[in-house]
Amino acid sequence: MGTGTGGARGGAGGGGLVPGERWWRVLFLALASVSFLISLILLFLSAPRLRLPGVAPSASASAASAVRRGPDAPPCLAYLLIGARGDGRRLLRLLLAVYHPRNRYVLHLSADAPDDERQSLAAGVVAAAPAVGAFENVAVVGNPTAGTPVGSSGLAGTLRAAAVLLRLHPDWDWFLTLNAADYPLVTQDDLIHVLSSVPRDLNFIDHTSNIGSKVYGPSDLANNISCSPWVILNRQFIEYCILAWENLPRILLMYFNNIIQPQEGYFHSVICNSLEFRNFTVNNDLRFILREDPAQKDPPFLNREHYGQMVDSGAPFARPFRENDPLLDQIDGNVLKRWSNGPVPGAWCSGRKRWFSDPCSQWGDVNIVRPGPHAVKLHQYVNRTLDEAKSSSNTCRR
User: Which keywords belong to this entry (predicted)?
Assistant: First the structure.
């Protein structure tokens, strides 16, 4: 832990810091938290992104108006795809694997990536998926946060991307975070179809301890909470964290700014200590992760030996994968039916499948989804997960 955390605990115990020093430390942390929140508000008002080549404004407006939104329409998913230096091609492949015109996307290459890699990613997006120019539903962050995933910068990048999505497209239902090492195990038609029957006020967070019993101090949070940093959160909860109309998100943000891995506990602690949201949680991040050794912090990379177990699980996502692993090609060919270098085809693709033509270069009604055979396993997986959430005591519901 850092000096600030140790000092705060020493002061609370009566030793270490004298009262005057303790109050100066509290004041400093409070000012840092307020400064961080002001930065988020500014980002919310002006979202920096690379401008992607598009089509004529009239065509874009026509495409956007064709997308139905609201409780009677299929859900809209807002994705944050995160990568570091050298992950540009991986992020492009991941985007194409989860792309659908109804959804929203923010691509974030960390600050240690060179500008030409970021520009290449933006150009590759439009070249590989012409629908992006028409529906204008993909943004590449042009002024990214720091390259390290540890410390407050990782959490700041996630909150910033959520603010960008709220600023650009305030009409989505769930916010999903994916890393360059992630990959889907179902098509977006499958996922949207199954989530259409799921209450949209639910949040999917994976934690292994009762983090709703009290608001911990920084060292307690680091020592007592073991959570997945990958989350699926509804829009109302994201607005609560970004706009912070109550003190809870601000207080916990101040605590988690002093923790090495804040994303492994921030959203989980906010939601489990919120009277408004804690009864709408599911203790599952909807990812297949192989845990051969419970004592091992980082899971092993998946390979072709795990294909059957992974697909049979019914989970919509899996991790981690190595770049260009043959297992990804197997998933593309057998599960996603992704052809060539284009997006995964769905009911929205109306072009003919030819060796020289991408069927998704033309599109029809994007409000129609056509689930495939893997949607059956996904539906069973989600139903089982929801049933466990109702009966399990390992949850922050009251």
Answer: Glycoprotein, Glycosyltransferase, Membrane, Transferase, Transmembrane, Transmembrane helix
Count the domains in the chain: 1
Please name the residue ranges forming H helices in the chain.
3-12, 19-45, 57-65, 88-98, 115-128, 131-135, 152-168, 188-195, 218-224, 235-243, 247-256, 266-272, 307-312, 326-331, 374-391
Six-digit token pair at 310? 């992974």
Q: Does 236 reside within a domain?
A: yes
- For residue 22, being part of any structural domain is answered with no
The tens digit of pLDDT for each residue in 178-234 reads 999 999 999 999 999 999 999 999 999 987 655 544 444 544 544 455 678 889 999
CA distances from 69 to 66, 74, 328 (A): 10, 7, 32
Q: What CATH number does the domain containing 382 carry?
A: 3.90.550
Q: Residue 15: phi, psi to the nearest 5?
A: -120, 175
pLDDT (tens digit per residue) in 288-344: 999 776 666 788 999 999 999 999 999 999 999 999 999 999 999 999 999 778 999
Please tell me the total number of residues recorded for the chain in this structure.
Answer: 398
b/e code 303-341 from CB counts within 10 Å (16+ = b): eeebbeebbebbbbbbbbbeeebebbeebbeebbebbee
Range of the domain at 250: 48-391
Phi and psi torsions of 19, nearest 5°: -55, -40
Contact 318, 98 (CB under 8 A): no
| Residue 138 · residue 101 · CB < 8 Å | no
The sign of the torsion formed by the CA atoms of 167, 173, 179, 183 equals negative
Residue 113, in any domain of the structure: yes
Does residue 128 contact residue 342 with C-beta atoms inside 8 Å? yes
The residue type found at 369 is: V
Nearest to 344 by CA among 353, 59, 365: 353
Q: What is the 3-state secondary structure (H, E, C) of 245-276?
A: CCHHHHHHHHHHCCCCCHHHCHHHHHHHCCCC
The answer to whether the beta carbons of residues 303 and 223 sit under 8 Å apart is no
Residue from 322, 314, 268, 326 nearest 288 by CA:
314
State whether residue 111 is helix, strand or coil: coil
Q: In terms of DSSP bridges, do strands 77-83 and 174-179 run parallel, antiparallel, or are they unpaired?
A: parallel
255 assigned to some structural domain: yes
Cis, bond preceding 373 (omega within 30 deg of 0): no
